């Protein structure tokens, strides 16, 4: 499976909200129903958020089926950094972790620990490599795929440091093998995710590595069970790394990496504006761009339950009121891990941006512009495409007819 968003056509009313919101124009209206072009979809979840009829859902088997019928002798849950922000202020970290264990997990690994390590790797990479500016974060799979699809010239700006989910799964797996004396195939790693893009990052990672995560569990599918268990006292737990916990909100990864010359941008429309600036060479004096598809960062993911601004406030409360119990796990291994190359990755061969023949690209663009000149320029969406230019592209690619435009058809009559 390499696709993480599904459309229920029976629920779809053809309202065009999703088509207009999609940042890569991957959605069309065909026979008054939305249609997703898989090759253009970056799995950002904007369609899930905007659809008033709940026609879009993440593709996922029931998480408990994967748990109950799996061959795993040890099941590990990785808690994403925004998770604690979903619970009211004062909620015990221990209670959150133990409520997750009670769902059938043997071990809980906090992604804030690996986020702390990845922060150090980002800092070192930026200080080592001076000829690339700005570096662009690779933590958000939707942003990375947006760049691959729409800004291939910026692929070299990506920092190519594995995200905390990937590093955390590797470390958790090694720890479980040591503690329980198990083999890789006997261990199942499940990531509790704030967004649908993480599912695609597991099943079809953009890097040249196999993900150590076996499956992604949408947080909202287990939140009710967690909340019912959350009030039962249990003091056995491992505390998160405070710097790593900052990754849950926009700007947190840059702060955690001790960067000062950075831009933190969140929300797809804002990201597109910043990427335009980078492509035009206007941000070469900036070290790092932290780009997150969801509003306020990962706390705004479509799998979360709480308003992102409230969740952000809850996380800030935890950080400000933390005691001495908050430990940083595996930090002493950082130098060894970095020198071994464990944080770094390369693009898969098939994910390298296509190098267009300039002459062919110019000819193609001219033909599309000729078609676009025939259209009314209203961007009304009645043809089933979000804009007249998008319709012109579809006509050029033989995916639509010119007179699908009802304005043009009316004039012709």
TrEMBL record:
What PROSITE patterns does the entry give? 4FE4S (PS51656), 4FE4S_FER_1 (PS00198), 4FE4S_FER_2 (PS51379)
- Recall the GO molecular function terms of this protein's record: 4 iron, 4 sulfur cluster binding; metal ion binding
Which Pfam families does the UniProt record give?
A: Fe_hyd_lg_C, Fer4_10, FeS
- Give the 4Fe-4S domain ranges: 363-413
* Source organism superkingdom: Bacteria
Keyword annotations for this protein, in alphabetical order, are:
4Fe-4S, Iron, Iron-sulfur, Metal-binding
4Fe-4S ferredoxin-type domain mapped to chain residues: 3-32, 33-61
- Recorded protein name is 4Fe-4S binding protein
Classification from the root reads:
Bacteria, Bacillati, Bacillota, Tissierellia, Sedimentibacter
């Amino acid at each position: 499976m390499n696709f993480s968003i599904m459309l229920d056509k029976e629920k779809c009313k053809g309202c065009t909200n999703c088509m207009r919101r999609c940042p890569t124009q991957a959605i069309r209206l065909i026979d008054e129903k939305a249609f997703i072009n898989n090759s253009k979809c970056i799995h950002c979840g904007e369609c899930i958020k905007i659809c008033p009829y709940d026609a879009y859902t993440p593709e996922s088997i029931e998480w408990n089926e994967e748990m109950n019928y799996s061959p795993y002798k040890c099941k590990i849950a990785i808690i994403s950094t925004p998770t604690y922000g979903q619970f009211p202020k004062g909620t015990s970290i221990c209670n959150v972790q133990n409520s997750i264990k009670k769902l059938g997990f043997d071990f809980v690994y906090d992604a804030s620990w690996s986020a702390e390590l990845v922060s150090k790797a980002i800092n070192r990479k930026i200080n080592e490599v001076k000829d690339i500016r700005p570096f662009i974060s690779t933590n958000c799979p939707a942003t990375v795929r947006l760049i691959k699809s729409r800004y291939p010239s910026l692929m070299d700006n990506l920092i190519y440091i594995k995200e905390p989910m990937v590093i955390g799964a590797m470390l958790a797996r090694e720890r479980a093998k040591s503690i329980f004396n198990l083999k890789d195939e006997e261990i199942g790693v499940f990531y509790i995710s704030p967004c649908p893009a993480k599912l695609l990052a597991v099943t079809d990672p953009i890097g040249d590595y196999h993900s150590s995560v076996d499956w992604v569990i949408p947080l909202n599918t287990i939140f009710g069970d967690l909340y019912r268990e959350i009030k039962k006292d249990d003091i056995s737990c491992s505390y998160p790394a405070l710097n790593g916990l900052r990754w849950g909100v926009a700007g947190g990864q840059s702060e955690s990496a001790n960067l000062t010359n950075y831009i933190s941008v969140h929300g797809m429309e804002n990201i597109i504006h910043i990427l335009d600036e980078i492509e035009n060479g206007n941000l070469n004096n900036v070290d790092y761009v932290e780009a997150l598809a969801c509003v306020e960062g990962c706390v705004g993911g479509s799998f979360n339950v709480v308003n992102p601004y409230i969740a952000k406030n809850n996380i800030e409360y935890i950080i400000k009121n933390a005691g001495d119990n908050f430990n940083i796990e595996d930090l002493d291994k950082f130098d060894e891990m970095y020198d071994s190359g464990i944080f770094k990755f390369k693009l898969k061969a098939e994910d390298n941006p296509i190098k267009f023949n300039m002459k062919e690209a110019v000819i193609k663009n001219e033909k599309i512009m000729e078609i676009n000149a025939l259209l009314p320029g209203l961007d009304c969406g009645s043809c089933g495409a979000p804009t007249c230019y998008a319709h012109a592209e579809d006509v050029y690619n033989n995916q639509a007819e010119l007179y699908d435009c009802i304005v043009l058809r009316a004039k012709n009559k």
